[in-house]
Specification:
alpha/beta; 7-stranded mixed β-sheet; 4-stranded mixed β-sheet; 395 residues
Length: 395
């Protein structure tokens, strides 16, 4: 794939650490899309799609990519900020990041996959069933809703309810998801290395697990011969019946994920009034997941900039000592959320955060997946620098 050769060339002009620090800057400050992006041929890049979250607090006024790929193959979320010093340009067939009108680096955009132009047997566009994230992750959303939005107890940083109102889409069926996987896995423009299943949020995670089991049963029919597992992860709500976890492992799912979001108990209750009610089931699901999937194969998700750093690190180490992999995504202000006007904290906070996470991954030996990374890989994990931290970017 020619675009990967371009990225290899760009990587010779910027070190891995420089690229990781640039990614952090872009996640904190966002990017301005230059008007030149309107001239990009449609097939040249994969457009942004709001399937679960809307990662911006501003309206999209030009055709933008879902993410940019920095030198050393670092996938980076594209977060619009018209006041950002960083700007993405398209010039003479190449994409460039500028800071205050000075070129920083050339980047690539994942090309639009061929399967985006295909339809399922039900007539649904496959781009409405699954998306490519970063370079090589096929991402599904099983349920595009959160039960806690219905009674006003949603997490304050979440905008799923806004997305449902403004970008309404029916949930994909297991059959549609399997048909899309069959086409995506043989796509000539992108090479799928992982699969991720996000399930929305149900009060009873068993409902998510049941649908996921049905999906995995169908997808297993099309798994490539060289895949020993369905590489990637599924993010589930806490389960009432943790025996479903054994069935997920039987169906060759590589990793399981749960969302804690915030370390401090009082902040958790205040900012996640619904999700915090499931704490007992969360711990039961976490312990069962580690027992069944093994150390380094169960992730716990956090969001940055919501509490003092030491509170996040304390809770991350608690889970790491159990064998779970904590990950922290850089906070983004999502339009329609209660924290839409908040910004991510400064770079020094995040540098210390990811330095500490990198140390935890090594201390507890948590890089256990197919690519020997803590969390999927840096080529697709676009809103966090957990893998970059493990690889020494913030030492």
């Amino acid at each position: 794939m020619d675009y990967l050769y371009k990225l290899k060339e760009y990587s010779q002009k910027m070190s891995f650490k420089e690229s990781a620090h640039l990614k952090l800057d872009l996640l904190i400050n966002g990017i301005r899309p230059d008007i030149s992006l309107k001239d990009v041929p449609e097939e040249l890049y994969k457009e942004y799609r709001a399937n679960l979250f809307y990662n911006h607090r501003e309206n999209i006024t030009v055709y933008i990519p879902g993410e940019v790929i920095l030198p050393h193959y670092l996938a980076t979320d594209f977060r619009i900020n018209s006041n950002s010093p960083y700007c993405l340009h398209y010039k003479e067939g190449e994409f460039l990041i500028y800071k205050n009108d000075e070129e920083v680096t050339k980047v690539i955009i994942t090309p639009r996959p061929e399967f985006y132009g295909k339809k399922t047997s039900s007539g649904k566009r496959m781009s409405e069933v699954a998306n490519i994230l970063g370079l090589d992750l096929l991402a599904y959303v099983l349920f595009r809703e959160c039960d806690f939005w219905k009674d006003g107890k949603q997490c304050h940083f979440c905008n799923i309810g806004y997305v449902n109102r403004n970008f309404p889409k029916p949930d994909p069926t297991p059959k549609e998801m399997a048909e899309t996987f069959k086409e995506a896995i043989k796509d000539k423009r992108v090479k799928i290395e992982h699969v991720c299943f996000t399930t929305g949020t149900k009060r009873n995670g068993d409902l998510e697990a049941k649908k996921l089991i049905e999906v995995l049963e169908k997808i297993n029919e099309y798994i490539p011969e060289d895949w020993k597992k369905i590489y990637g992860a599924a993010l589930l709500s806490p389960l009432e019946n943790t025996e479903y976890i054994e069935r997920l492992a039987d169906l060759r799912l590589e990793c399981l994920g749960l969302a804690r979001e915030i370390g401090n108990e009082e902040r958790f209750k205040k900012l996640c009034p619904g999700k915090s009610q499931l704490e007992k089931r969360f711990y039961e699901s976490l312990k069962k997941g580690i027992e069944v999937f093994g150390r380094g194969h169960v992730g716990v998700a956090f969001v940055s900039s919501l509490e003092p750093l030491e509170e996040t690190i304390k809770k991350c180490e608690e889970y790491a000592s159990m064998g779970a992999v904590p990950s922290v995504s850089v906070f983004h202000p999502g339009k329609g959320s209660k924290l839409a006007n908040k910004s991510a904290w400064d770079k020094d906070y995040h540098l210390e955060l990811y330095k500490s996470l990198g140390e935890l991954y090594h201390k507890y030996d948590l890089a256990k997946n197919k690519f020997e990374r803590p969390l999927i890989c840096e080529r697709c994990f676009k809103s966090s620098l957990s893998n970059e931290a493990y690889l020494g970017a913030f030492e």
